[in-house]
Design brief:
Radius of gyration: 36 Å
Distance between the termini: 77 Å
Number of domains: 3
CATH class of the largest domain: Alpha Beta
CATH topology of the largest domain: Rossmann fold
Strand content: 15-25%
Structural class: alpha/beta
Strand order of the largest sheet: 5-4-3-6-7-8
Number of strands: 14
CATH architecture of the largest domain: 3-Layer(aba) Sandwich
CATH superfamily of the largest domain: von Willebrand factor, type A domain
């Protein structure tokens, strides 16, 4: 009898639970119907905005799923399309492991946590993953056109100049820079200067050859044909090496002897023509003897002609090296400055093409904040601010001047190319 009593008590206790189950199921069914209705509306809107035959990613389907196609105007059916109910079921399955309420998208940190732990599809079918890789900077070639005329000996700067060139090519900091060299002569034929004394090669492998090429400085000053021939050589190298920029570096004392009709005007014209060619060639100028010299003891000579050549070559003004006790330091600084300023502020990502809209991230030093530089439409759109744009001529991601200045001021910093969206 006691056992019968216990069974009755147990029956009485469980009865309310049994009665509650139909009510709970009814509430669950009502919620599910509501979700199905909302999903059907979303699916209908998605299909209505798609063109005939376009791939449509229904709610809850993976972005790579292309089995769903938009209906055509003639009323043909979707190929392999799921119903709104199937889409909602897929959505419920996607949410099942997240711990959130079915049919409700998580946001913020919760959404990121679910994406990383659940492995389910993103609620945004248009989302993409950015590619972030250390930027590969476009390389640099320098072709030195050196004045070896008698006037350079009279300054005297020849020994100091050749020593400075030797230090530059031996400097480990210049490893990877391409360098070639040629010299003035007596010939009035430009083609005679298009074959260099030392063709452009990468440092340090070409350093010894350059140091053994120094001639006695007794040649003429046929600057105009020398510039024309040298520019032709630089243009050929530049066209054959698109991953490197190649520039002409004119090193002269600025005394324009009337050899081969050379003059300030003709030299400026050659720099202008070099820049207008395809591909264009920039001309940098290092002026020797801007101060008092043996040929100009009271410093009445002007370097304006060399500034004019640099301006025509789109490189600003000539770097000046005066004949005094600090000439060695000035020569070293002039060569280093040209290399630093001429190095392109252009980057690409390893194994990937730059897409329009790519951005960049910059860190001055390890531990410093990472700054993101936005993408702008063109160089003109930089408007003095930081940013990047896609170069029309090289396809590289090019830095706005303000961003380029930051990179040049911190050569040990790190730049990342951010691409993919």
């Amino acid at each position: 009898m006691a056992s019968d009593g216990r069974r009755k008590e147990a029956s009485a206790t469980s009865a309310p639970a049994k009665e509650a189950c139909p009510a709970r199921r009814a509430r669950d069914d009502a919620r599910r119907i509501g979700r199905l209705t909302r999903c059907a509306v979303l699916v209908t809107a998605s299909l209505a905005s798609a063109a005939c035959g376009d791939a449509v990613h229904l709610l809850g389907t993976l972005p790579v799923d292309t089995s769903h196609r938009a209906p055509c105007a003639d009323g043909s059916t979707l190929l392999g399309a799921a119903s709104g109910h199937d889409a909602c079921v897929a959505s419920d399955h996607a949410n099942a492991g997240t711990g959130g309420a079915p049919g409700r998208a998580d946001s913020g940190a919760a959404a990121e946590a679910n994406a990383s732990t659940d492995g389910g599809p993103s609620s945004d079918a248009t989302a993409c993953t950015e590619r972030r890789s250390v930027g590969i900077r476009r390389g640099l070639n320098l072709f030195l056109l050196v004045d070896d005329s008698l006037s350079v000996v009279l300054q005297p700067l020849w020994d100091r100049l050749t020593a400075a060139i030797s230090r530059f090519v031996d400097d480990p900091a210049n490893t990877g820079v391409g360098v070639g060299i040629t010299y003035y002569g007596l010939s009035c034929t430009p083609n005679d200067y298009s074959t260099p004394k030392v063709p452009i090669g990468t440092l340090p492998s070409v350093a010894a050859t350059i140091k053994s090429s120094y001639p006695l400085p007794i040649n003429g000053k046929a600057i105009t044909p020398a510039m024309e021939g040298a520019a032709a050589y630089v243009r050929a190298v530049k066209a054959g090496e698109p991953d490197r920029d190649t520039v002409l570096v004119l090193i002269t004392d600025g005394i324009l002897d009337p050899v081969c009709l050379s003059s300030e005007a003709s030299a400026v014209e050659q720099a202008r023509l070099a820049l207008q060619g395809s591909p264009p060639v920039q001309t940098y100028v290092i002026g020797l003897g801007a101060g008092p010299t043996l040929t100009d003891p009271i410093n009445v000579g002007s370097m304006a002609s060399l500034d004019a050549i640099a301006a025509a070559g789109e490189t600003g003004v000539a770097a000046r090296v005066e004949v005094n006790s600090s000439a060695d330091v000035q020569l070293d600084g002039a060569l280093a400055s040209v290399a630093r300023v001429a190095e392109p502020c252009q980057y690409r990502a390893a194994g990937a093409l730059i897409t329009d809209g790519a951005a960049a991230e910059w860190q001055t030093a390890v531990g410093d904040p990472i700054v993101r530089w936005r993408h702008v439409a063109s160089a003109a759109a930089c408007a003095g601010g930081a940013g990047v744009f896609t170069s029309d001529t090289t396809g590289y991601l090019e830095l706005c001047p303000a961003s380029c200045d930051a990179v040049r001021a911190n050569p040990s910093g790190t730049l990342w190319v951010v691409d993919g969206c």
